[in-house]
Every structure is written in structure tokens, then in C-alpha cells.
Design a protein that fits this description.
By secondary structure, this protein is α/β, with parallel strands linked by helices. It is built from 9 helices and 15 strands. The strands form 2 sheets. Strands 1, 2, 3, 4, 5, 6, 7 and 8 form an 8-stranded mixed β-sheet that branches.
Amino acid sequence: MTQLILLCRQGFEAETAAEIQDIASQAGCFGYCKTQTDQGYVSFFAEDHQLKQLIEHVNFRQLIFVRQWLICGEAIELDSTDRVSSILQGLEGTPHCGEVELIHADTNEAKELSRLCKSLTGPLAATLRKKNKLSAKRNHKIPRLMIFFIDGQHAHVGYHFTNNACKWPDGILHLKFPKDAPSRSTLKLEEAWHWFIPKRQWGERLSAGMRAVDLGAAPGGWTWQLVKRSMMVDAVDNGPMKGDLMETGQVTHHEEDGFKFSPSKKVHWMVCDMAESPIKVAERMAHWVVNEWCRETVFNLKLPMKKRYQEVRQCLDLIEQKCKDADINVEISAKHLYHDREEITCHVRRLY
């Protein structure tokens, strides 16, 4: 039977399964999941025509815990002496594609496959082009062929549509930690810019001179990102700010409780990475948006140990309802980013 493989963070297989079951049922696609704890992916089984309809009509960007997806059949066995030929034999049912990517799950065991994937990519692509199974040049307008390695002897051969999938083949954006940043949490906000805001809009929506507020700012990882975008920042936290942020002249430190702070004037950005219950954070974020204190906000929701997908849905639905009650039009999105751990990152933007 045809299946949809959904890559996720190791340990979040249950949340990914709950999410795809929910999304699929809403789309009229009825199937079931097979998964295993800590394997870094989930398999969703349904009828072939339903799965194709699902990946064509469900917006990938609305998925929270899914890093990447591909539609495929059962795993094929690979000849360790000629894996390219084994993959060629497993192409039945896949469309003509514009590029090929070899990927694996994000687990310690699967990471050992990285070298194999890199070494096979060139020879496989060349062979596929000779066999007319791949376009002569990389083409992002037609499906992308995906080879998902389970181990060195087994792989799934599948595809997805590049305009409805993650642009990073394995769903991971690798960022380099800036040496002068106060904490590694800075990477969470940097990744959020890449995920939630199209690069062509950075000049407009992340422009120099904007005013921003960072709630729960200490030690300054998220404030650092705002300062690097040449924004003026109100950093709110009872704890101390680290690094050279205060010497830039762009930061005003308010030693206050982030849940009680209100800005003296409207700002473009409010960001928040406070370790509080998800529903409490969601209520405060909605308060900021409804009161027009900010135009856009990026914030993290720290997740409980159980029923994490349900908790996320409750928080996002609360924000949506409060904005609806206030007759405010917003865009709301959320993602379990690569640099997140037991949390998800959310983005809310007022539409005028």
C-alpha cells in the first residue's frame, strides 16, 4: 500500500502521528499510522489516490511537527555492491522529476548514513538523467525524487511536489552559531525568520530602525538578533543581559516581569521566549496582538510531556478566537523548528 513518510524530530513521533491523522481526516483522507519511538519519522498509510490528493491540496506549511514528507511505496532492498541499480528498479510509480535528493532520519544511528547519501547523489543523478528519469537540468517546477534511507540496505523511493514541501530536503536548516551571541537560543529566532518570513520581504519586514520588544530577554540571545537587524529594542527581564548588547545604544533594559510589561508606544516586533505554561503565554501574546501593541510577534510555547499536539492546538485556537472576537484579521502559523527542543515556535502577523 502507498504511504506518506513524515520526518520529524526524534521523540516527537506521537505528535506527528496525531497531527497527520487530524489533518488527513479534515481533508477526507482516511488512513492509519505506523511508527516507532525515537525513529525520527512516521508512516501514514492510505489509498494511493487519497495520498496523492492529500499532498497536492494540504498546505505543507500548516504542518507543525512535520519537517518533510514524501509519498512512496514499501521499502526496497539495496544491493550493497550496486545501490544505484537497486534504486532504479524501485522507480515504478514515481513521476518524471526535476531533481533527486538522498536523505535519512535525524537520529544518531541514521546520521551515519550521511556520507553514503553524499557519495551516491552524483552517480545516481547522472544515471537517472541517462535513463531519462530525471530532467537534464534541475527543475523545481516538477516533482522532486526523494530517496529516504532507513539503513545501508533499505530505502524508500518516493517523491513530493517542491512547491508544497520544505525547501530544505531533509527539513533541516543548519545555522552557524555566532561567536558573539549571548546564548545558543539566538539560533531559534534566526531560524524563525527563515521559516516564517519570505527572504524577499526581509527588507520590508525586518528593516533597520524598527522598534521591537523582547519579553524574557535575558541573557539576550533573541535581543542580539534584533540588534543585528539594526532595530531599537526594549529588553524586558528581571535577569541580567550579557555580552556587549547594552554598549550598542540600541537596547533599553527593563527589569520587569514580561507578563506585566506594556509598551509606551506601538512596536513592529514583539518576541518572547519565556519558560511559562503554553496557555499562559498564548493568552499574553493574544493580548499584545488584540491591543495593537505590535504588528508581528514570534514566540515559543514550551510543551508539556503528554498530549503536546492537543496543547498546541488549544493555544493556537485561543489566539485565533480572541483575534476573531476583536474583529482583527491575522495570520497564525507554528513550527517545531530544528533548533527547538521541547517547544514550538509561533508567528502571528496582523493584516491591515
